[in-house]
Amino acid sequence: MKRKKQPAHREIIMQTENENRETAGVAGKVQALRQNSIYLLPNSFTIAALFAAFFAITQSMHGRFESAAVSVFIAMVLDGMDGRVARLTNSQSAFGEQLDSLADMVSFGVAPALIVYNWHLYQFGKLGYCVAFVYCACAALRLALFNTLIGKVDKKWFIGIPSPTAAALVVGLVWLDYSYTDGMFQRASVWVVLLTLFAGLSMVAQVRFWSFKEINPRLKVPFIGMIGLLLFLMIFILEPALVLFAFFFGYSLSGYIMWAWRKFKTRRIAKTS
């Protein structure tokens, strides 16, 4: 028996469906390539931050501690940019979050610990090992805690100082010592130990610190505010090491000051009631 030929319109429909599938496949590949290209942008900043941290470690191994400290601050700037770029390009991903966390561990945990150890803590022998390791371990704990609390805590506050702030305290002291004090902090060695421990333990302290995430960039400020900002920028350009260390040290104290003030107010209210 001869098979009946399918109507011409059915052949046209089948051909159109095949063409649509091919077009959809090509469009899907193009979309995937576009997404991969977009995701490459924020991850490039993360990799650049990781390279800056690696460079800082190698510089400290060769005794170039000022260069090492500056490299950590560069890593800090790059780390702050990758998240903003991801949000602006709508390219946030689980891969990017994990890569950023690992890069942060190297940039603000391992690198500062090795820099301060190679700079000064090595003179204390086993105690120096312990102090540097305490800082490094606290950075790991802080980052792990931050990852588990994403979306569960008030964005207005950090619990413990962020790892970049702790890194800025440690390497900021190194940069400050080379820029202004002519080795004063190395001679007053106990301050290096205390500051490293303070920075490390503050990362895991159950104390709230303002996160600055509620600042509105579109907020209008009076003219005098712009003058103040310009003066701050001028001072920063002239004395970057001093300004950065003073800012991060003041910020690291702010949480404890607010904590003590709340305790004082609570006791005062309890006595009067």
TrEMBL record:
UniProt GO MF annotations: CDP-diacylglycerol-serine O-phosphatidyltransferase activity
Listed EC numbers: 2.7.8.8
First-listed, main subcellular location of the protein, grouped into a coarse class: membrane
Compartment(s) of residence: Endomembrane system
Biological processes annotated in GO: phospholipid biosynthetic process
One GO cellular component term: membrane
Membrane-crossing segments per the record: 38-57, 126-145, 157-176, 188-207, 219-237, 243-261
Membrane topology value: Multi-pass membrane protein
Reaction(s) this enzyme catalyzes, per UniProt: a CDP-1,2-diacyl-sn-glycerol + L-serine = a 1,2-diacyl-sn-glycero-3-phospho-L-serine + CMP + H(+)
Keyword entries, A-Z: Lipid biosynthesis, Lipid metabolism, Membrane, Phospholipid biosynthesis, Phospholipid metabolism, Transferase, Transmembrane, Transmembrane helix
InterPro entries from the UniProt entry: CDP-alcohol_PTase-I, CDP-diaglyc--ser_O-PTrfase, CDP-OH_P_trans, CDP-OH_PTrfase_TM_dom, CDP_ALCOHOL_P_TRANSF_CS
Family: Belongs to the CDP-alcohol phosphatidyltransferase class-I family.
Protein name per Swiss-Prot or TrEMBL: CDP-diacylglycerol--serine O-phosphatidyltransferase
Organism: Kingella denitrificans ATCC 33394
Gene: pssA
